[in-house]
Amino acid sequence: MAGPSAVAGRDEVPEGGFIRIRVAGIDCILARVEGRLYAVEDNCSHEDYPLSYGYLDGARIKCSLHGSRFCLRTGQPLEAPAETPIRTFHVEVINDQILIDPTRAGE
Ligand code: FES
User: Fold this and answer.
1) Mean pLDDT across the stretch 78-90?
2) What integer is the mean pLDDT of 26-30?
3) Atom number in ligand 1 closest to CA 49
4) What is the DSSP letter of 65?
5) Is it the case that residue 86 has pLDDT exceeding 80?
């Protein structure tokens, strides 16, 4: 599988917000919280529902269907009903481009 892919410009992700991107066939959320970038899969582990329909709550994303919250750093569910973590991906910024490596976990 390929390594890191450029997915956005450095300034394309608003502070306290996220954009949707697709990398290596995976729908992802790319978020910025307190200056730090996070990439997680855009899919709630509870019922395969897009997390991008929800909203950020600090460094967590809340699913709008049943209310589970997931840590953007670890992917762990912090609130029921979801019990399974979501995938996180390694993010780096090189030459004003944001790169995501779908083969490496975040943190
Ligand atoms: S689909 Fe996300 S909490 Fe149920």
Assistant:
1) 97
2) 97
3) 1
4) T
5) yes
Name the residue ranges covered by the structural domains of the chain: 5-101
Average pLDDT over every residue of 60-76: 98
Q: Which residue has the tokens 């460094």?
A: 59
Task: Name residues contacting ligand 1 (CB within 6 A).
Answer: 44, 46-47, 49, 63, 65-68, 81-82
Question: In angstroms, rounded to a whole number, what is the distance separating the alpha carbons of residues 91 and 25?
Answer: 17
Pocket test for ligand 1, best of 44, 51, 61, 69 (most atoms within 8 A of CB): 44
Atom of ligand 1 nearest to the CA of 48: 1
The correct answer on CATH 2.102.10.10 for the domain covering 5-101 is yes
**What does the pLDDT read at residue 2?**
74
Mean pLDDT of all residues belonging to the chain: 96
